[in-house]
User: Fold this.
Amino acid sequence: MKLGTSSISLSVKDLQKSKAFYGKLGFTVFGGDESQNWLIMKNESCVIGLFQGMFDNNILTFNPGWNGEAEKLDSFTDIRELQKELKEKGIELVSEVDENSDSGPASFTLMDPDGNAILVDQHV
Assistant:
C-alpha cells in the first residue's frame, strides 16, 4: 500500500512561537498561509504542519500522489482505492471519501489502536 509522502500535523497554540521554535531546529517555511493560521515547514525530508485553532490533537498525515516536495507523482494509488483496501482489511474509518467520485482531491480519516488520528489527504 503506497500512502504517499507523510508529515505530522501539529495543533499549536501560537503559530508565531511555534514557527520560531521549529526554525531554531532548522525547519524553514515550505508552504501554508500565516493569515489562515497554518504553515508547512521542512528540514531535509522531515515535514511538519503547524495549525493554530484548526483541530484539537496532532494528526499523522499521508498525501497520496505527492512526493516529499509536494510535487505530483506520475503514478500513485488513488485515495478511493486506498480506502477500499483498508475497508476490505476491516479498518474502520472515521470519515470517508465519496465512493461515487472518480478522481481528484479527497480525504479520509482513521484512528490507530491508541486513538491517534491519521489523515489520508490527496491533493491531486
